[in-house]
Amino acid sequence: MKYLKELTLAISLFFGSALGVVAQENAAPSDSLRVIIWKVKGITCSSDLKRISTNVTAVQGVASCKVLKQGPKSTFEVRYHPSQTNEAAVAAAIQATPDCENPDKRPYQVVK
Description:
Blueprint: H1 2-26, E1 34-41, H2 46-57, E2 62-69, E3 73-80, H3 87-95, E4 109-111
Antiparallel strand pairs: 1-3, 1-4, 2-3
Helix pairs in contact: 2-3
């Protein structure tokens, strides 16, 4: 029984570390991340901020999207992998986000 527990633990550790190595190999290096600050107008409530962040984060290659400032021109910090996406795709995701009150409208505009 003692050996069975040790064998189970050894197998778990082996496969756990092997999966960790595979995950690290597939992950893009953190030094390749680029950061861009976007100003967005057309936001009227905090739900809009969350919708935009969620939509931008769904873009392949985007690591994070966080709100830096809320207001008439809200500010977002977007971290992305330039080998997987670009600024135009991020801007398109922002502007394609539907309004929380009227899902048929796309009121958000990126301002440089």
